[in-house]
């Protein structure tokens, strides 16, 4: 079962490929997505990494939470489920 991680504090210069490569040190990365601002097209400084197992996700949290990557300190934890948006 895949586990989705929230990753905050991502540098604006970080790419999805470099984020995926970094997290692959902890195990199999299913996907890595950096959230982009719709208007500017620039990174919003956070994203999500999907790890293939809960154990690998926990290892990634332990390895990368509070650690520096591309000059910024990452905040890594298990992503909360998305809330339904009201009015849509």
In words, what does this structure look like?
With 88 residues, the protein is of the alpha+beta class. It has a single domain (3-78), classed as RRM (RNA recognition motif) domain (Alpha-Beta Plaits). It has helices spanning 16-23, 54-64, and strands spanning 3-8, 29-36, 43-51, 68-69, 72-73, 75-78. The strands form 2 sheets. Strands 2-3-1-6 form a 4-stranded antiparallel β-sheet. Strands 4-5 form a two-stranded antiparallel ribbon. The longest helix is centred in the C-terminal third of the chain and has 11 residues, at 54-64. The model has no long low-confidence stretch (mean pLDDT 93).
Structure keywords:
2 helices, four-stranded antiparallel beta sheet, globular, RNA-binding, Alpha-Beta Plaits, 6 strands, alpha+beta, 88 residues, RBD_domain_sf, Nucleotide-bd_a/b_plait_sf
Secondary structure layout plus pairing:
Layout: E1 3-8, H1 16-23, E2 29-36, E3 43-51, H2 54-64, E4 68-69, E5 72-73, E6 75-78
Antiparallel strand pairs: 1-3, 1-6, 2-3, 4-5
Domain RRM: 3-81
Keywords: RNA-binding
Protein name: RRM domain-containing protein
By DSSP (H or I, 4+ residues per run), the number of helices equals 2
Which topology does CATH recognise?
Alpha-Beta Plaits
Query: How many distinct beta strands?
Result: 6
Helical amount: 10-25%
Terminal residue distance: 29 Å
Quick synopsis:
Helix content is 22%, strand content 35%. The protein has 88 residues and is of the alpha+beta class.
